[in-house]
Amino acid sequence: MSIYLERIERHDGILRSYITVLADRALAQAKAAEIEIGKGNYRGVLHGIPYGVKDQLYTRGIRTTLGSRILQDFVPEQDATVIERLEAAGAILLGKHNLHEFGKGGTIDFPFGQPRNPWDISRTPASSSTGSGIAPAAGLCSGALGNDTGGSIRWPAAANGIVGLRPTFGRVSRHGGLMFGWNADTIGPMGRRVFDCAALLQAIAGHDPGDALSARVPVPDYLSALDGDLRGVRIGLIREMTWVDGMHPAVKAAMEESVRVLRSLGATVEEMSLSLAKYAVPLQMLTTDADVASVFLRKWLRTDWDRFDKGTRSRLATACLVPAPIYNRAMRARVLVRQEMLDAFKTFDALITATHLQPAPSIAKSRETVGSDTDMLERVLRRRISTWPFSGANVPAIALPNGFTDDPLPMPVSLQIASSPFSEAVVLKIAHAYEQATGWHERHPDLALTTRAQASTAA
User: Fold this and answer.
1) Integer CA distances (angstroms), 69 to 100, 141, 305, in order
2) N or C: which end of the chain has fewer CB within 10 A?
3) What is the pLDDT of residues 68-89, one digit of tens each?
């Protein structure tokens, strides 16, 4: 535990992955875990393992800010269900991770410090589970929990070169999380390896009476699914979500190589079409953003307008203007987009895409300032085309490293694998087999560059 805390002290002044670090509490729990394990009371693979959570999840007696000045002093009186379950598994909460304000993306001025990508600190670590992507990549915790509405686990995983899993909607309890996108928000694991995500999901998955939308579906043994055998597995490569204008050459090359690797492992991979997938982004922005805005309109937008970051405020205010008839039509259209994808799973065990068409851009270019049709296409629609269709269908999807750019500071690119509802074991199985065959997860950022940057800033 001391090693993690020393690394946080050394590097997080520039990376800004944490809002709150629980050093004394974590050290005490680590000592207790050591004693307990020494007595033979071993709780499993997470016992004594330090993890962090997106500061969107309630932690009893520990402030939960949602990355906002509005809630900077909020201290809940209960733990989120996922926190309770990880505590029961013996895991140790190391701290609360930085995020885009209220988990929405688009933040311009971060009240708890500008998060930075550990591979290149001039670049974005992505949103909105931002710190939860940085910290595992930089070795500042062993794993993390994020929250994904349209890609907020998978995009930070891709940008920071780690693994991130969005579970099926309802697979993991959201009780004790400040969830605003009621028809899409999911809590899920992030880590350096597929095994890490499988172990975290094993602990947090399952029905919870505290969450009326959590599913009463049995939880399988996810770790046993990591057997490396892809013989007979049928995989579809979605044309409209991968071979898209604006695709970076390194992303294209990595996807072509990923297909070759999956075939070499025994899987059948074919290109296929989802003609409605391109509509998922505007449809979900119309509906999910309006859902979120409905929560804020009754309180904070009226009372704390000036305390919002202007990026968050603009997005929420715009969503408040969506007319009810348009919202209703968009919800009905989402059903059609979702059904097309579910029908595809009658033929394929899994579907694959690039997680994003581009590696992480500079922090300045990542800001979603829209002043033209070109800005809307590049900064909003294309950025989401590979992740949002899976969110709209509410199916499990995992992002994992599948290569790097050839920049002076190489940036990770990422493969995404999705499957039918409650088939997390399938995406974990395929992802793990691919990971073990390629070894991209063994490559880590050079934090000596971060240390030098911090020293330069201090000087």
Assistant:
1) 12, 25, 11
2) C
3) 999 999 999 999 999 999 999 9
Q: Which CATH architecture has domain 2-458?
A: Alpha-Beta Complex (3.90)
* Full strand arrangement of the beta sheet holding 350-354: 18-21, 92-97, 50-54, 143-148, 186-191, 163-166, 397-404, 412-418, 350-354, 234-238, 268-272
Phi, psi of 417 (to 5 degrees): -130, 130
Q: At 22, list the tokens.
A: 């629980």
The DSSP bridge pattern shows strands 92-97 and 163-166 to be unpaired
Taking only the tens place, the pLDDT of each residue in 285-311 is 899 999 999 888 878 888 999 999 999
386 is annotated as an active-site residue = no
Query: Catalytic: which of 17, 127, 128, 173?
Result: 128
In the chain, where the domains are located: 2-458
First to last CA, the chain: 30
264 is an active site residue: no
Distance CA 55, CA 186 (A): 14
* Residue pointed to by tokens 């009893």: 60
Catalytic residue among 54, 96, 104, 429: 54
Rg of the chain (C-alpha set) = 21
pLDDT at 91: 98
pLDDT of residue 42: 98
Ranges of H-type helices in 106-148? 130-137
Q: Which of 46, 250, 75 has its CA nearest to residue 161?
A: 250
d(CA 174, CA 248) in angstroms, rounded, equals 35
Question: How many CB atoms lie under 10 A from the CB of residue 452?
Answer: 12
User: Bridge-partner residues for 148, per DSSP?
Assistant: 186
| Amino acid letter, 241 | M
What pTM did the predictor assign?
0.96
Q: Could you give the CA distance from residue 225 to residue 304 in angstroms, rounded to a whole number?
A: 48
In angstroms, the CA 387 to CA 166 distance is 10
Measured between alpha carbons, how far is 102 from 371 in angstroms, rounded to an integer?
A: 24
Directed axis angle between helix 280-297 and helix 324-344, to 10°? 130
Burial of 110 per CB tally in 10 Å (0-12, 13-18, 19+): middle
> How many CB atoms sit inside 10 A of residue 59's CB?
21
Q: Is 54 a catalytic residue?
A: yes
Contact 357, 386 (CB under 8 A): yes
How does DSSP assign 376-435, residue by residue? IIIIIIHHHTTTHHHHHHT--EEEEEEEE--SSS--EEEEEEE-STT-HHHHHHHHHHHH
